Amino acid sequence: MVASLPLVFDAPRRGMPRTHLADLDAEGRRAAVAELGLPKFRADQIARQYYARLQADPSLMTDLPAPMREQIADALFPPLLSVVKHVACDDGSTRKTLYRAGDGTLVESVLMRYPDRNTLCISSQAGCGMACPFCATGQGGLDRNLSTAEIVDQVRAAAAALRDGEVAGGQGRLSNIVFMGMGEPLANYKRVVAAVRRITAPAPDGFGISQRSVVVSTVGLAPAIRKLADEGLSVTLAVSLHTPDDELRDTLVPVNNRWPIAEVLEAARYYADTTGRRISIEYALIRDVNDQPWRADMLGKKLHRALGSRVHVNLIPLNPTPGSEWDASPKPVEREFVRRVNEQGVPCTVRDTRGQEIAAACGQLAAEN
């Protein structure tokens, strides 16, 4: 099983779109503009249109000379993601978007409005190769990595929708990004880190969202966790642990056969030590599988020993996928699990679940289409 897992950090560029403005850093943008025979100041001008004005159609970039717009569109704005459908629930405060890339690949993102923030859950891969059996995306396997621009443009589109009042609740501003959509972010390492830099840099280099408002999740690719710690970023690391014992985790999260729990927690401790950021532990509670009281006790003890006060457990009621044998734990079991983890000195709360009636679990909408 281990040999079949795509454990490299970077998959081949199969199906990738042509280079887009959002794939380029400032130096790359200036070089691209120079190749078009345009003055270098146009590079920042075009980038401000994309990152500050959230405009991705050069024909509408009115501060550019009209004859120049078609040239720029051809060179720097190849088609990325087209909307297949929007599906909303929770009185419109949750909206899931299904996109189709130029090669037919399907990608999802979910926008969630809360009283104090607007959060976008984005995808970093089309599908996922980690093969977790309770996850709809994992069941479908990996199609390909997304390009940096395909990741970034999910953010631009959601920010524009909020700004323009297209989502229930009126006009708003995108404040939080979580890499918890389709795919394993750290298996598409270079493009995810580049996307984080675009998302968090101020205009004209990015959207200016605070690094502390960005969460990057992983099932536990320990070397990549250490590498991320050394990037000089202040994003939150979320580790999808799902059980405190290797015997069960080998089944629930097959990559555990390569990097067991002790090694993952050691890497997480390195991340906390290096960045000063608290680690978030994601734990999908599954009825009669990983919800036993003794597992709650073991989880709390292991996390407290490895990370001390620099950890928080997000308990996630499982969002069942069609035809799956897995189901969410009953509420009394959930409450007892939380109590026992808290007793070990580790904060544990239940995540607010959204969008079950619109197939909001990662990969469900793509699978249906």
Q: Would you mind describing this structure in some detail?
A:
With 369 residues, the chain is of the alpha/beta class. The protein has 2 domains: 21-76, Orthogonal Bundle (DNA polymerase, domain 1), CATH 1.10.150.530; 81-368, TIM Barrel, CATH 3.20.20.70. The chain is built from 12 helices and 12 strands. The strands form 2 sheets. It has a 10-stranded mixed beta sheet, covered by helices on one side. Strands 5-6 form a two-stranded antiparallel sheet. α5 runs parallel beside α6, α7 (222-229) packs parallel to α9 (261-275) and α10 (293-307) runs parallel beside α11 (331-343). Its EC number is 2.1.1.192. The active site is at residues 108, 362.
Mean pLDDT: 92
- Tell me, what's the shape? elongated
The tally of strands reads: 12
- Residue share in helices? 25-40%
Work out the count of structural domains.
2
Structural class: alpha/beta
With strands numbered from the N-terminus, the spatial order across the biggest sheet is 1-2-3-4-7-8-9-10-11-12
* Beta-strand residue fraction: 15-25%
| Number of contiguous helices | 12
**What's the CATH C level of the largest domain?**
Alpha Beta
Q: What's the name of the CATH homologous superfamily of the largest domain? A: Aldolase class I
- Give me the strand/helix succession: HHHEEEEEHEHEHEHEHHEHEHEH
The CATH topology of the largest domain, please? Answer: TIM Barrel
Low confidence ranges: 1-13
InterPro entries: Aldolase_TIM (IPR013785), Methyltransferase_A (IPR040072), RlmN_N (IPR048641), RNA_MTrfase_RlmN (IPR027492), rRNA_lsu_MTrfase_RlmN/Cfr (IPR004383), rSAM (IPR007197), rSAM_sf (IPR058240)
Cofactor: [4Fe-4S] cluster
Binding site for [4Fe-4S] cluster: 128, 132, 135
Keywords: 4Fe-4S, Cytoplasm, Disulfide bond, Iron, Iron-sulfur, Metal-binding, Methyltransferase, rRNA processing, S-adenosyl-L-methionine, Transferase, tRNA processing
